[in-house]
Structure formats: C-alpha cells, structure tokens
Amino acid sequence: MSETAQHSAHHIDVKEFHPRARAAIHNPQIRQNFRKAMDGLMSKRKSAFEGWDLETLRDLGANIRMRALANLPDLLEQLEQKLTENGITVHWAADGDEACEIVRDICVARNARSVIKGKSMVSEEMELNHYLEEQGIEALESDLGEYIVQLAEETPSHIIMPAIHKNTEEISQLLHDKTGTDLSHDVEYLTANARLQLREKFMNADVGVSGVNFAVAETGTLCLVENEGNGRMTTTVPPCHIAVTGIEKVVPNLEDVTALLALLTRSATGQHITTYFNMISGPRKADELDGPEEVHVVLVDNGRSTIYQDDELLDTLRCIRCGACMNHCPVYTRVGGHAYGTTYPGPIGKILMPHMVGLDEGRHLPTASSLCGACGEVCPVKIPIPDLLVRLRQEAVDGDKLHPAKVRGHGAKRGKVEAMIWKGWSWMHARPGIYRMGTSLGARFRKLQPGKLGGWTQYRTAPKLAAKTLHERMKERSQ
Amino acid sequence: MSSRDTILQRLRHRTGGELTSPECDFSVLNRPEWSTAEKLDMFEQTIESVHGEVHRTTEADWIDRLAEILQTRGAETLLIAKEHEIGKALQSATKSRGDLPQLLIYDEPVESWQESLFSEVDAGITSTRGGIAETGSLILWPSVDEPRLMSLVPPIHIAVLKASELYTTFHQAMRSQNWAAGMPTNALLISGPSKTADIEQTLAYGVHGPKELIVLVIE
C-alpha cells in the first residue's frame, strides 16, 4: 500500500506522482495484486467479444456517443423535461462543491441523518462522503469493494473494482479489525458478513445516493449497471433516492443503451451482461408498495463544459467508464491506481483529470504513458487516448503557434533551457548551411558529448553522435 | 445566472466548430432468426454459466416442480403476488396440497413489514415479461402487484418465464415491446443471482440480492 493511500483525496498532491509510482513499483504486493487482476480482466474481455464484429460494434458505440455530444444541450433539456414529467426532480451543479450542497440540502429538508451509497465515481469526484461527514450526515458505501475501501479509509484504486489493490488476506484482516468478523480466507464467509451488516443499514438509511451509467433523454430513464444488487437496494429501499451524474452521460434514445451496455460490461469485466440492469423512470406511484417516494437527479458539470469547447478534447467526454483502458495499460498495471493520486486513474484519468485539477497540478499525468496505444485500441467508444495524451503533453509545455494551449494550468512544464534548446534547434534546421556546419562540428567533437542527459539517461544510455554525418557518408557513396 | 443556465449557455455557445451527428447503424446487433427451441437452449446455457438455474416445465406441472425445488432448499415461506395468475394459482393449490411453503402475499406498503421482509422471507416468485437468449436475461417490470423488492430481498428468487416470450437480443426485445413509448417506474434485466468479485476477483453469490435465481420455463 502506498503511504498516501491512507489519506483522503483532500490531502493528495497530484504533482507527487513520481515518488508514489516509485514506491508502488518497489512494492511486490501491489505489483502482484494488479498483475493478477489485470491479466484476468484482459483475457475475460477478449473471450467475451468472441464471435462479435468488434470493430463495427465499437464504431456504433463511438457514433452513439458522438451523436449524443453533438446534441448535448438539447438532450440535457429534453432529459430534464422528461424526468420532470416522470416526477423526478432535476438539479444542476456547476462543480463538485455545488453538487455536494445540493445533496446536503435534500438531506436537510428530509431531516436525513444517514445516507447509503451505491457505487458512483462522480460522487468520488465530488468527495461527497467526506463532505457529508463534515455536515454530520453518515455516508456509507454499500458496493462491497467501496465498503472495503471506505473501511480502510482509502480511495478506490480502479473505477470498476475499487479494492483491487488488496488481496484476500489484507481484506480479511481489515474486516476483522473494523467489523469484528473472524480472520478467514473464505470469501463467501466474508461476503455473507458484509451482507448482514449492510442489510441493517439499507433498512435504516434515510437517503440512497447512486451514480448513473446512462441517462435516456427520450423516456427520462436512469440506467444503472451492477452485479451485487446494492444499487437496486440503494435506489429502492430508502424513501429518497438521489442520483448524481456527469452531464455527458445522456443519450438520445433508449435503443442506444442496448449497444452501449453490450460494450460496457464486456469491456469492463468480460461479462455478457451484469446481473442487474436497472432502469429507473420515476419515484413510487401512489398505489405502488415499494420504491422511493422522492427521486432527484443532480447533473454535474465539474469541468465538462470546458472540455466540451475544444473539438479534439471533446472526445474525452465519450467515455462510458468501463475501465478497459486501465486494465490494458502497462503503466497502470505496474503502479496501480493510487499512484496517480486522482479520482480516475489510468489512461482515462490521464486525459480527464488535468481538466479537473488543472495541468499545473496534473502536469505529470499525460507523461505517465509509453504511448503504446493499447488504451486506444480497446476503448469501446474509440476515444483516441494516445492522441489526447500527446495533445496534453503539448499543452503542458504551452503548445505552439498552430495549437495554442487552452487547458487550465497549461505551460506548467515549460522550462527555459528546454525552450531555448528547441528554439535553437528549429533555427538551425531552417538554415542548411548552419545545419551542415552544426552536424559536422558535432561529429568532430563527439567525444565531448556529455554522458548524462538528465531524465533521459536515468533509464537509458545516451545516444551517441556518429563519427561522420549523413551528408558526408552520402557524398562518399556517390563517389 | 443559475448553474443550469450557465452550463447550457456554455454548451450552446461552444468555441469549437460545428459538431456533426453521425448516423448510428444498429445492424451489428442483429442475430439470425432463431427458433424457440434454439433460443431456449441459448438462454439456458448463458444463464447457467452465471450460476442461474433453469427448470423446463409445463403449465400443468410447474407447481409440482416449484414445490420440489423449495422443499430441497427447506424454504418455509414464499412471497407471492396477490392478483397475478401465478399468485392466484398458488393460493388455490395450497388449499389442496401440503408440500408448498407458507405463502405470504405482498399486498401492503413495505414500510409496514420491512423488518420481516428482510429477515423472514425465504423465497419470492415473480412473473417476467420475457427473456433474452443472447445474454441469459429475464425482463421484469415490477408493478403494484409485483413490487420491486420481491425479486431482490428474499435469498431465493424464482422467476416464471414462458418459452414463447424469449427474444434473441435485448435490442429485439426492446423494439418488439416498444419500450420507447413509455417506461414503468422501474424496469429490470436480471441475469443470474446477485454476485461480487470485489475480494480478489473471487466470485461470491448473494452479496446483497438473492443467492439463488431459479427460472421455471413454461414450454
């Protein structure tokens, strides 16, 4: 476990990526836990798509998401109208803080003291648990992985499997220490105990908070994808249900959901479908016998409308949060989710978080990649993640004349010396005479070349200038 | 200006170029037309691969099978609907036979009996609006008569599925039943018992919902 993982996200300095990554790489437990899990997930995904025309399906997924984004403001208004007609109250939040306040106000109006939560990455983004605790409202996670992470006072290390960084032994010890269960490697026993403890909580919770996988504008339907049933409990048992979602999760038609669901569960965990696909279109009707009497939706912006401004960065918003990019990422697999210090780790985190925390804070994120391209190849909605990583790297050193930097905190990595070197480089390359003189001087005095070149030679040997320049060799050949 | 208006205005007046709406061709989801027998085989195979249990039975025999299944599990109580034909058939059957568990009818708001629903009900039986062969899924639209928690809280969920109501894909089911025309307050696809792999990817069943999902297929 990395040291920082023990603190709430509030205290994590995103900039300190390197020390965290180094610590994780030298932690055999972390390496083993992630390697094992990611290997399993990759092979499950592969077999789940057998017999499918995957490229065409991914094209469809990408087109559905692009169509939704192309009509985003209209769709959000349509969604709001349909949800309202269905009896669901719609709220809008500019950022995480405002979203937290909206949730608090609903709780206060209902005199609610306890909140039970289904899995929601947007609520992690909002740091909702922390906020509610400060307001004296208990917030308890009910997804088993999230529950474990909350007991450990950590943050999720994977967006689909939050406790993937821990093995059974560590979890057994944690549950023993925090909830008094016997020390046991019997996963069934550990799970059964969590069921007992959480059932009590479901019955007594005043409010249930969930995320949303897809919000359908046409019918005003909130779709939730899950295996455990805690999502159904959260949205059915307490008298009030609050769903929090990013504004980009809207799709125009119910039909769209069929293709996205087929891509989501197979990409995420290699399942044909999850145990539950829960479609909520309204609170309990007068004659119904269960279900929440109140349903609220909080549409959270938190930087998304800024990403939306740029034609290239916009693709970031296609994401359906399957986690396949992290499962296939050689960097994520080695350093684990906590090293990033961000709500969303892995490749999607590297292209999304700089917008949320600023490129000054998140300056190292786009560079934590070998640009191998695996993330882009497996993305079910074809987000060109490697291209976006390169774009953000350019933004971090302040772009150029053709691509002026826009992202908040841009230019944070721009160094005077490096900028000067590249300026000189481009000046020299635009002048053939000086270029030839430069290369021939380089060849002549190559013994004087320094052996250490900063970060470059930390893990590599320095490149050596050749004894003869290419021009000289070509001349020799033609003689 | 409200956050709503700020967000919508920012989205409407974006600085980038005009966004185009690509065509969406759903034909990649199409499957060949399968016979009912093929769909049933596929359904059975898929749902059993995720720990669901399928029993093929008939209109005449399903109560016998149900009684057998519940007896092997030692279930003492079974939650049923008041008005649905399944509930009615069970109510009349129990008068003449002693091998069914005690029947509980879900006819009161959950608030008045939540505690016993959560701790004393061994099994619940619901109807379905059909099934999906490709993913091994049951379609449930909870209603006044068959409330949402019937299929969630008891440790055993028994679902009755007519083989003739099997669809090949989710897309086909949704289109055939014209869901876009209007959705109920809650609609569900259920594909197996509740499960988790959150502890080191080891599968465990019945984490929050039913530990067992038993499908009675009426052929």
From TrEMBL, chain A:
InterPro entries attached to this UniProt entry: 4Fe4S_Fe-S-bd, 4Fe4S_Fe_S_CS, FTHF_cligase-like_sf, Helical_ferredxn, LUD_dom, LutB/LldF, LutB_C, NagB/RpiA_transferase-like
Bilayer-spanning residue ranges: none
A Pfam family it matches: Fer4_8
Domain 4Fe-4S ferredoxin-type stretches: 310-339
Keywords, alphabetical: 4Fe-4S, Electron transport, Iron, Iron-sulfur, Metal-binding, Repeat, Transport
Keyword field contains Transport: yes
Protein name: LutB/LldF family L-lactate oxidation iron-sulfur protein
Source lineage: Bacteria, Pseudomonadati, Pseudomonadota, Gammaproteobacteria, Pseudomonadales
TrEMBL record, chain B:
Cited Pfam families: LUD_dom
Domain LUD: from-to ranges: 41-218
Cited InterPro entries: FTHF_cligase-like_sf, LUD_dom, NagB/RpiA_transferase-like
Signal sequence annotation: none
Superkingdom of origin: Bacteria
Protein name (record): Lactate utilization protein
